């Protein structure tokens, strides 16, 4: 009986470590799934200083163009310099995912991601699905908003 517990514990530990390594490599290689951005149904860009809305994208074409212009495929995981200050924040929304268990007709939209763009134009903080990632862009993202 004790041998079974040791073997089961070893297998569980091996799986947990293996999955941890897999996801660390996946994120480190910048394979984060940005597909949810394309599923967004509303994107709002705010000026951090004034908290005023600068842009609102609510058509599929506008959102697709916005996502393409971000150049996400060229972002790399990176730390944000401490002296870089927040310039813009972007909030993305979509309709809630419907499931079999939930019979409510939820007609609203829910926030799916928040991006913070820093004044250098190179750094982005992304918060989605309870996770936070910091990236460095290969382009100056501020040019999208001028």
In a few lines, what is going on in this structure?
With 146 residues, the chain is an alpha+beta fold.
What does this structure look like?
This protein has 146 residues and is of the alpha+beta class. The chain has two domains: 1-31; 33-145, Dna Ligase, domain 1, CATH 3.30.1490. Helix content is 29%, strand content 29%. It has a seven-stranded antiparallel beta sheet. Strand 5 and strand 6 form a beta hairpin. It is extended and about 70 Å long.
Fraction of residues in β-strands: 25-35%
CATH top level of the largest domain? Alpha Beta
How far apart lie the N and C ends?
A: 68 Å
Question: Could you tell me the radius of gyration in angstroms?
Answer: 19 Å
Strand order of the largest sheet: 2-1-4-5-6-7-3
* CATH architecture title of the largest domain: 2-Layer Sandwich
| Helix/strand class | alpha+beta
How many helices in DSSP terms?
3
What is the count of β-strands?
Answer: 7
**N-to-C SSE series?**
HHEEHEEEEE
Mean pLDDT: 79
Number of domains: 2
Largest sheet data: 7 strands, antiparallel
What is the third-level CATH name, the topology of the largest domain?
Dna Ligase, domain 1
Unreliable segments of 5+ consecutive residues:
25-31
Helical coverage, percent range: 25-40%
- Overall outline: extended
